[in-house]
Amino acid sequence: MPKVDETVIGFAVYEDATEYLGISEVSLPEISNMTEEISGAGIGGKFESVILGAIEAMTTTFNFRTVTKNAIKLNEPREHHIDLRAAQQQKDTVKGKIEVVQVKHILTLMPKKLNPGKVATASAAEVSGEYATSYYATYINGEKVIEIDPLNYIYFVNGKDYLADVKKALGK
Fold first, then answer.
1. Beta strands 80-92 and 3-15: pairing type?
2. In the chain, which ranges are E strands?
3. Per the CB 3.0–4.6 Å rule, which of 85, 126, 141, 153 could disulfide with 117?
4. Cα 8 vs. chain centroid, distance in angstroms?
């Protein structure tokens, strides 16, 4: 059944069951795998090898329209457990119907930087916060599709933990 992903209808961000209001957008962490350049005897040159389950440091960015207590709260120097929920619009091209897809992102963050933005009449302050991200998971319609947890050797994608054998080899 062909379906076309169209847009995010709306989203909400929660910490400890409290909704953060005034967030204009969130840039989720990029998952960038670590690599090692390989060269040596028996290799006609060099190639880049992706290291299984090893990732570069992840960063999440929150953008606020104005300076708020919630923006300041996220700058408290402690772990923040964030639940970001989105309603996405998808079109079923066979039935000609619009469907809503539930997407939930779970994040563990520590503040790195707070930019209090600008002050100008009749305009957004463009406040932003940047956060070191030590845990990231995504659920689509209740099904876990990705979980990245470097501290616990978890690199889970579409039903498989690619670090399970590594944990076993390490006795974890």
1. antiparallel
2. 3-15, 18-20, 23-27, 33-39, 46-55, 58-64, 80-92, 97-115, 127-140, 143-149, 154-157, 160-161
3. 126
4. 15
Output the pLDDT for position 1.
62
Q: At residue 7, what is the residue type?
A: T
Amino acid making up residue 95: K
The mean pLDDT of 71-96, rounded to a whole number, is 94
At 62, list the tokens.
């929150």
The answer to whether the beta carbons of residues 91 and 4 sit under 8 Å apart is: yes
CB 128 within 8 A of CB 64: yes
Q: Please give the model's pTM, rounded to 2 decimal places.
A: 0.91
The candidate with the shortest Cα–Cα distance to 26, out of 84, 67, 113, 102, is 84
Angle, CA 36 vertex, CA 35 and CA 37 arms, to 5°: 125
Q: How many CA atoms lie within 13 A of 109 on its CB side?
A: 28
Rounded-to-10 torsion of CA 166, 82, 104, 152 = 10
Between CA 134 and CA 97 the distance in angstroms is 38
Find tokens 């979980």 and name the residue: 147
- Please, are residues 163 and 152 in contact by the beta-carbon 8 Å criterion? no
- Nearest Cα neighbor of 86 from 2, 5, 3 is 5
